[in-house]
Structure prediction request, 147 residues.
Amino acid sequence: MTATEIRDEIARRGGRLDCQADRLLVRPGSVLDDRLRQEIRQCKADLMTMLSKAMPPDPGGWDWLVYMPADRFRAGRYLVRLYSEVLQEQVALISTAALLPRAKALGLVAYLPDEIDRLAAVHPDPDTLRKLHAIKKGFDGRIVGGA
Prediction:
């Protein structure tokens, strides 16, 4: 099998193939059988090359993030630092709560996908967004209800 065929077979079975550093990850692992595991081992270098081209580690732009499907972002381990003109500070967009300690260690207030969804749904004005952010920052909390 080629790298593309392996990726497509994993997707056909309801899984997703990603690379993180020098590791290949298949989620959920239940989509793998012994034959497919062997194909992955034999084609690891090609798979790593294909996946790293699809998602460069240092993209030099934001297209990779803007066009990333939300489910891929949620399933990954992404911490994206950005500067908010409205908040006048850097914040972190993180894909999983497991990255909260990392964001905190960087001195950033972190927003999870569900929080971004809630904020996007209510379109808060800049003043309301600043107030919500100050509360989140002050209480080290999460946005769980409507803004």
